[in-house]
Specification:
115 residues; alpha+beta; Beta Polymerase, domain 2; 4 helices; repressor; NT_sf; ribosomal large subunit binding
Length: 115
């Protein structure tokens, strides 16, 4: 079930042209979620469009959105889907927070290209 959610979210990110999508396997590392998806948009508007697409596609497929934070400011939008947490950054903020380095011990997953 989590793997299909991961595919749905990844495709939603790709469809809205999210940049530099990274998938971290957080199992055995964090109690917060099994997977983190990290990406960025080039503007506030694009970051919000990416978050909306993730929300719509997840709900269309029967997944519950636990919460969304940071949508209005659009600098770092967090979409909590339970086992999958999506971090959508404005490109200017991503390097500052550098979650990939913070969670550097988490293995990165290669996702197949979305069709």
């Amino acid at each position: 079930m989590t793997e299909s959610l991961l595919q749905i979210v990844y495709k939603a990110l790709d469809d809205k042209r999210a940049e530099d999508i990274v998938v971290l396997n957080m199992q055995n590392i964090s109690l917060l979620a099994d997977y983190f998806l990290i990406c960025n948009g080039n503007s506030d508007r694009q970051a919000q469009a990416i978050a909306r697409e993730v929300q719509e596609k997840a709900q269309e497929n029967g997944y519950e959105i636990k919460r969304i934070e940071g949508f209005d400011s659009a600098r770092w939008i967090l979409v909590d889907l339970g086992d999958v947490v999506v971090h959508i950054f404005h490109k200017d903020e991503r390097a500052f927070y550098n979650l990939e380095r913070l969670w550097g011990d988490a293995p990165q997953l290669d996702m197949p290209a979305a069709e």
